[in-house]
Each structure stands twice: as structure tokens, then as C-alpha cells.
Design brief:
Layout: H1 13-39, H2 42-72, H3 90-118, H4 121-146
């Protein structure tokens, strides 16, 4: 008879739900930024298209890493993104993107705090790394918005 061993770290349902919220957010912005990249043109759009594409790919990698961690911890990763907003002009798009990054930063700080509270050092470390990238994305969108 073989026994199935679960994860070494036991975490709360609250932390698992927070990780799924993070996945939904990452899926949302990866689709949102990619569609903005595809749909926007013009001189100003040309300047940000590749940045949007690059950030979209980074966000998808975040979703994958978080999903892997959640699954390891015994959760089932969501396949549903948070509501996607493409926007009708570049200023509207970048304004929303900046807000979405600020929301992610807030959520990830709460996840880090919860993971520390529960002694889950791996989740803590993963989200500290992702948080650094999200702050860079927020800075990028803030800078882009200043020029619009």
C-alpha cells in the first residue's frame, strides 16, 4: 500500500483563497495588457506596445508560479481572471493598468504578511520576489501616464 504525502507546510484556507485571488489578478492583467498591446497604435501607442507585451508575459509567469505554489499547498488554481478592462484610449488603459498594479501590490503585501504569520517561508519568498516586479510595473505605468 502506498501512502500519498501532502505538502510539508500546512496553510490556512484564507491563504489558499488569497493565492487564488492573486492568480485571478495575474490572469486578468496578462490578458488585459496583451490585448492593449495588440489593439493600440499610433505614435504614443508605438512607444508602449512592446512594454505592454513584455509586462503581459511577466504577469503570466507570475500566474504560473503562484498556481504551482497553490497546487503544492493542496489548493486548486482558478482558471477565471478578474474582470478585464482594455480601454478605449491609451490614457484610459494606462490609468487602469496603474490602478491594477497598485491593487496587486496591496494584495501581495497582505499575502506576505499572512504567509509569515503561518510560517510559510516559501510563499513569503515567492511573493516578495513578485512584489518587486509588480512595483517595477507600477513605476513603468506611472511614468508612461506622466507622458500622456
Amino acid at each position: 500500500m502506498t501512502e500519498k504525502y501532502g505538502p510539508v507546510t500546512k496553510v490556512s484556507q484564507k491563504l489558499l483563497e488569497m493565492l487564488n485571488e492573486a492568480i485571478a489578478s495575474e490572469l486578468q492583467v496578462s490578458i488585459q495588457y496583451m490585448w492593449q498591446h495588440v489593439q493600440w497604435g499610433g505614435v504614443k501607442g508605438f512607444a508602449v506596445q512592446e512594454e505592454l507585451k513584455s509586462i503581459a508575459i511577466a504577469e503570466m509567469k507570475h500566474a504560473e508560479a503562484i498556481a504551482e505554489r497553490l497546487y503544492y499547498l493542496g489548493g486548486i488554481p482558478t482558471t477565471k481572471p478578474a474582470p478585464i478592462f482594455v480601454g478605449s484610449n491609451l490614457k484610459e488603459m494606462i490609468s487602469q493598468d496603474m490602478k491594477d498594479e497598485a491593487s496587486a501590490i496591496d494584495l501581495y503585501k497582505r499575502i506576505i504578511e499572512q504567509a509569515r504569520k503561518e510560517g510559510d517561508e516559501t510563499t513569503n519568498r515567492l511573493f516578495r520576489e513578485i512584489l518587486e516586479e509588480e512595483e517595477d510595473h507600477h513605476d513603468t505605468f506611472t511614468t508612461l501616464l506622466e507622458d500622456l
